[in-house]
Structures are given as structure tokens and as C-alpha cells.
């Protein structure tokens, strides 16, 4: 695993051994950013259920100004901290060491890009998007990127958002919601 493009391009990312997290493959990560960008001119990214932090780091590498990474697993938090240190741009990252629900209650928006890859996809994604909207954490032009198993069927609409793009890559499916 490595950073694919931008400022940190080619730098290796540490991943967590075992089944605690499911790191997004470089192929899927590249496809996600091709769908939504591929580069940005500033903005804030929220990477919920962050795992190794690879998606949030990739977003900053591609031009986002700041990434907020949320992860409750202690071993994954150490991996995220090592990956943030590798960027040598630690001031562009903030790690919330808690579950997503607790973190959302403490976050200050707005966020321009939200990355959601939860362990129990469908139920968690719907609840999370509704909560983010109710807490006024999303910018007017936010893109919400959800990564799931390809068998998961997400609703066409969640709150004020509808599916903009959706594509399967091997066993993964990427769904992008916009207002």
C-alpha cells in the first residue's frame, strides 16, 4: 500500500495485520479519486472508520487542506499516527481516537468530502449520513464516498442526498452521494 498521487506520491503506508480493518486496495483507492477528483483545491475531508488512514492521507496528498481521521481501534490508531508522521505534514491531520458516533458529536464542520467505510455497511452508512446532516457538518457541495462489499445495496436517496456515481471493483463497491 502506498500513496498513489499528489504531494505524498509513492510514499509507503503501514497497514494493520489481521481482520480488524480492511484497507482499501491501491486499485480501489485510485478509482475512488478518479471518480471524485482526482485533485482538489483545498477543502476539508472527514475519514470516518479510518483504518490505516490511507484514504484521508490520499485526499490531502491530492490537495485537500485538512483531514480529520476517526478510528476507535487502538492498534489502528497507532498505524494512522505512523502514516501521518510519514507525510511530514502532521499539522494537516487530526486524529479522533474514538468511535464515529462520539466523534461526530465533537466535530466542527463543514466538511467538503466525507469517506465512509464502516464494518456494518448499510445500517451504519444510512445512520451516519443522516447524523452528519443533522449536525450541520456537511458543506453545500459535499461529496460522500461510501465503500462497501459489492453485495450491499444502499438506498438511492439518504436524507438530502442521492447517488451520483456507483461502481464495483472486484469485491468492493464505491457509491458517491451528493445533494
TrEMBL record:
Its EC number is 2.1.1.171. It holds the Pfam family Cons_hypoth95. SUPFAM superfamilies: S-adenosyl-L-methionine-dependent methyltransferases (SSF53335). This is 16S rRNA (Guanine(966)-N(2))-methyltransferase RsmD. PROSITE patterns: N6_MTASE (PS00092). GO terms for molecular function: 16S rRNA (guanine(966)-N(2))-methyltransferase activity. The keyword Transferase applies. It is an enzyme of class 2 (transferase). Keywords: Methyltransferase, Transferase. InterPro entries: DNA_methylase_N6_adenine_CS, RNA_MeTrfase_RsmD, SAM-dependent_MTases_sf. Gene3D superfamilies: Vaccinia Virus protein VP39. It comes from the Bacteria.
Amino acid at each position: 500500500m502506498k500513496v498513489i498521487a499528489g504531494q505524498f506520491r509513492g510514499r509507503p503506508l503501514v497497514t494493520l495485520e489481521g481482520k480488524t480493518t480492511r484497507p482499501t486496495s491501491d486499485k480501489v483507492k485510485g478509482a475512488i479519486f478518479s471518480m471524485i477528483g482526482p485533485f482538489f483545491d483545498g477543502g476539508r475531508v472527514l475519514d470516518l472508520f479510518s483504518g490505516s488512514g490511507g484514504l484521508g492521507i490520499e485526499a490531502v496528498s491530492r490537495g485537500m487542506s485538512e483531514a480529520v481521521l476517526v478510528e476507535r481501534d487502538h492498534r489502528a490508531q497507532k498505524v494512522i499516527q505512523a502514516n501521518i508522521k510519514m507525510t511530514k505534514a502532521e499539522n494537516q491531520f487530526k486524529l479522533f481516537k474514538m468511535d464515529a458516533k462520539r466523534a461526530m458529536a465533537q466535530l466542527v464542520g463543514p466538511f467538503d468530502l466525507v469517506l465512509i467505510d464502516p464494518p456494518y455497511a448499510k445500517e451504519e452508512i444510512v445512520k451516519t449520513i443522516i447524523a452528519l446532516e443533522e449536525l450541520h457538518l456537511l458543506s453545500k457541495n459535499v461529496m460522500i464516498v461510501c465503500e462497501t462489499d459489492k453485495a450491499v445495496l444502499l438506498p438511492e436517496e439518504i436524507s438530502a442526498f442521492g447517488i451520483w456515481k456507483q461502481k464495483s471493483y472486484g469485491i468492493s463497491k464505491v457509491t458517491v452521494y451528493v445533494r
